[in-house]
């Protein structure tokens, strides 16, 4: 069941009256496919290694621009967002709109189900120990 929540400005921490998007539960297997097709070229989720993009291992609960040793854009470092299901869901719709000035060239995922599936996959992979 998806609940309606009011949004929190993840930069200031203050609540506002905007409604958070309703996020479908997501499907691991479909998310795995989305990750392989759209993310794997630049990111990993099963190690702390970086590629063109930073590792996504442990992203839930991590502050944007904070993977040690990765050369983030100033915009990404300064955004100050803490990655949650909700912030990732919004970010993945249009990364350049969410963080103007980001180096990420990914155009985003317009379909809510694809974003939810991808988040589900990343969440589950992050629960596994790094090999």
Automatic annotation (TrEMBL):
Keyword Protein biosynthesis among UniProt keywords: no
Keywords, sorted A to Z: Electron transport, Heme, Iron, Metal-binding, Mitochondrion, Respiratory chain, Transport
GO cellular component: mitochondrial intermembrane space
Changes after translation: Binds 1 heme group per subunit.
PROSITE patterns (UniProt xref): CYTC
GO molecular function: electron transfer activity; heme binding; metal ion binding
Cross-referenced InterPro entries: Cyt_c-like_dom (IPR009056), Cyt_c-like_dom_sf (IPR036909), Cyt_c_1A/1B (IPR002327)
Source species, domain of life: Eukaryota
Annotated localization: Mitochondrion intermembrane space
Classification via Gene3D superfamilies: Cytochrome c-like domain
Pfam families: Cytochrom_C (PF00034)
Segments forming domain Cytochrome c: 26-126
Presence of the UniProt keyword Ribosomal protein in the record: no
Entry similarity comment: Belongs to the cytochrome c family.
Its biological purpose: Electron carrier protein. The oxidized form of the cytochrome c heme group can accept an electron from the heme group of the cytochrome c1 subunit of cytochrome reductase. Cytochrome c then transfers this electron to the cytochrome oxidase complex, the final protein carrier in the mitochondrial electron-transport chain.
UniProt protein name: Cytochrome c domain-containing protein
């Amino acid at each position: 069941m998806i609940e309606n929540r009011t949004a929190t400005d993840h930069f200031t921490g203050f609540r506002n009256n905007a409604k958070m998007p309703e996020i479908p539960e997501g499907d691991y297997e479909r998310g795995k496919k989305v990750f392989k097709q759209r993310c794997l070229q630049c990111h990993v989720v099963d190690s702390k290694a970086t590629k063109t993009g930073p590792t996504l291992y442990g992203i839930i609960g991590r502050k944007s621009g904070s993977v040690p040793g990765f050369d983030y854009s100033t915009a990404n470092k300064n955004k100050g967002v803490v990655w949650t299901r909700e912030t990732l869901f919004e970010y993945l719709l249009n990364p350049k709109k969410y963080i103007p000035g980001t180096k990420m060239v990914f155009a985003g995922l317009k379909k809510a189900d694809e974003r939810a599936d991808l988040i589900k996959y990343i969440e589950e992979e992050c629960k596994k120990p790094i090999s």
